Amino acid sequence: MTATTPARTRLSPDERREQLLELGVRMLADHSLEELSIDLLAEAAGISRGLLYHYFGGKQGFYEAVVQRAADDLYAQTAPPSEGEPLERLQASMEAYVDYVAANRAGYASLVRAAAGGNDALRAIYDTTFDALGTRFFEEDTQSLLIADTPANRALIRGWQAMTEELTLTWCDDPSVLSRDDLLRVIAGSLPAVLAILA
């Protein structure tokens, strides 16, 4: 009895591009953007470099597409639940955020570095996602915490987001500095405390 090679499924261009994006996002879990090369993805996907250039137009186009997909995933995965007390919803959202960053630490950290380092396209993706995560607190249709939408509160939310990001990345680098539970208590507990100062 001879083994047969499974027939390869021919994918449409959209399906192939989707497959490559999903693979790129998965690889960001263990690789920085700098490490995520066209060669590496082509080898992992079993396709030629030329095909990747065909779909993404080059390394920069590939980076941008993968980062945009990862940013979309982060936004979707950190959506607060629609039910529960405000602090419970905040806690659930922050747990999802910490878990996402921990699972994708290399890629997330390299995106933060790239955005800070002057890459305009990646900076735009980062800024748009950062803004969307903050705006979520003020939008009723996304089951936000319904914080009063004032310039002061928006500024406080941005500062709290920056602190949350830095604390989470620091914890990912060295989990001995805080337990996960303590990290989450600090993150979720600090926002109401900050907002209460100006209430």
UniProtKB/TrEMBL annotation:
Residues 14-74 form the HTH tetR-type domain. Residues 37-56 bind DNA. Keywords: DNA-binding, Transcription, Transcription regulation. It comes from the Bacteria. This is TetR/AcrR family transcriptional regulator. It comes from Nocardioides panacisoli.
